[in-house]
Amino acid sequence: MKKGPFSFTLDTxxxxxxxxxxxxxxxxxxxxxxxxxQEAYQEKLSQSDDLLYEVYELKRPEVAGEILHGISIVHPGxxxxxxxxxxxxxxxVLDTAEIYYTxxxxxxxxxxxPEGDWAVEKLKAGSVLYVPPRWAHRSINVDPEEDLxxxxxxxxxxxxxxxxxxxxxxxxxxxxxDGEPEIVDNPRWNPPENE
Length: 195
Ligand code: F6R
Ligand code: ZN
Hints:
Layout: E1 22-27, H1 38-47, E2 51-58, E3 67-74, E4 78-79, E5 82-83, E6 90-91, E7 98-104, E8 106-112, E9 118-124, E10 128-131, E11 136-141, E12 148-155, E13 160-161, H2 163-168, E14 172-177, E15 180-185
Antiparallel strand pairs: 1-2, 2-3, 3-12, 4-5, 6-13, 7-10, 7-12, 8-9, 8-11, 14-15
């Protein structure tokens, strides 16, 4: 982790930062239970454990005044009709927001609140997305060939709650319908018991 002011550059071809503290790589095997078509998931996994997405993180102390930031890259591909996507999460401190700036590619951010609101926003090079406090978020790459590359920034104390999405899923899915992305209700959405 850097001490004091610092800067880094993003090369214009692939946007990998010239400096980072952490490089996370998530493979198909780490997305067990997350894809709608479980059969397609198993079939694909039996062939190869593909790299679905990567995150380059600039670490900061995990306190409210800091801003964690970095680059996320979702690779192109599908499991059945569902595009490669991130796990998605709520922030542990629910009242923390996040900003995403899309540098390259095409996709969607699927979002929802514990209160039942949902939203799906398009992501394309040049678009800036504000994810307000309380909104879980998952990024999806709908381009058949290109990476979806985004710069993100969020408060240092936010933390990540992956468990809620792992057990209940998102209310909405984005599926490939004959070459066009389609937003559908998640038939496997598993609401919390008190709803
Ligand atoms: C951080 C954040 C992004 C994601 C990244 C990978 O709060 O939202 O940096 O961490 O897009 O997605 P997840 O963390 O859901 O695997
Ligand atoms: Zn986040």
